[in-house]
Write a structure and sequence with these properties.
With about 260 residues, this protein is an alpha/beta fold. It has one domain: Metal-dependent hydrolases (TIM Barrel, Alpha-Beta Barrel). Helix content is about 35%, strand content about 20%. It is built from seven helices and eleven strands. The strands form three sheets. The protein has a seven-stranded parallel beta sheet. α1 links the parallel β1 and β2. α4 packs parallel to α5. It is globular. Bound molecules: zinc ion (2 copies).
């Protein structure tokens, strides 16, 4: 069963991909289920707030139109920061989400992709601050399904990919907290287009989550355009099986549904 649980449409500021074109593309590629996860980032000047109402209405229209061809779910990728938690809480209370990715894209409103946050910091400072921010957000915000691209700071690290061993303690704390709260982690196949040396998150982090007892995994391509849809999800499943996982999850109204890997 092929499902893609990380899909951006033109409701995200960094994607022009029309929702219906995306659905037709997924159907053509034989994908059985997709979940839209448009960006919600509060307090970021370069981003307009996601028009959740319009995004929801378009989704409902598409869900009826394509119900015989594909299962469509509705979610968001929330770029939560410790000081914006209450804004995300309000969005969650106002709308009926199937799935939420908790991602870290900024700290103190400074973005990673353009190096605003990293500027003037050592590699140790960047990586420790990144994982600390995620850990703190997890204490404050519980209405999410999985941690999105957990080690994605590696994409934007000006010094190269930091070794997981250097941050093992905080990674361990994050994974234990996720498991205790019934949360999963996402395997994000954008690692291939960012030319990273490992999966996102790394095999080591996936192994740690598995060995600690974690069982909730989703797969997502982080689609922003046609060629990304479903990219390498089947191949990555094989690697995840070797780590020891036997199932992956889709979500409905924030509850996981398990499928054999
Ligand atoms: Zn992201
Ligand atoms: Zn994304």
């Amino acid at each position: 069963m092929l499902a893609d649980y990380h899909m951006h449409t033109s409701f995200s500021p960094d994607s022009q991909f029309d929702m219906e074109d995306e659905i037709r593309c997924a159907i053509k590629k034989g994908i059985r289920e997709i979940c839209f996860t448009d960006h919600v980032d509060h307090n970021i000047q370069a981003h307009q707030d996601c028009p959740l109402r319009e995004y929801r209405l378009k989704y409902e229209e598409c869900r009826s139109k394509y119900q015989d061809q594909i299962v469509l779910k509705w979610g968001a990728e929330c770029g939560v920061q410790t000081h914006t938690v209450s804004l995300f809480q309000k969005d969650f209370d106002d709308y009926d989400f199937d799935f939420i990715l908790l991602s870290c894209h900024q700290i103190q409103d400074l973005e990673f992709w353009n190096q605003q946050f990293q500027k003037g910091k050592s590699q140790k400072e960047i990586n420790e601050a990144y994982y600390q921010e995620i850990y703190q957000c997890m204490q404050l915000y519980k209405d999410y399904s999985v941690l999105g691209h957990l080690d994605a700071i590696k994409r934007d690290d000006p010094y190269g990919e930091y070794d997981d061993d250097q941050v093992e303690e905080i990674l361990m704390a994050i994974l234990k907290k996720a498991i205790a709260d019934g949360k999963g982690i996402e395997v994000n196949t954008s690692c291939f287009r960012y030319h990273l040396s490992d999966l996102t998150p790394s095999k080591k982090i996936l192994q740690m989550y598995h060995d600690l007892g974690g069982r909730i995994l989703t797969f997502g391509s982080d689609t922003h355009k046609e060629e990304h849809v479903g990219f390498k999800i089947e191949e990555v499943k094989e690697i995840v099986r070797e780590i020891g996982f036997k199932e992956f999850a889709t979500f409905e109204k924030m509850k996981p549904i398990f499928h054999p890997l």
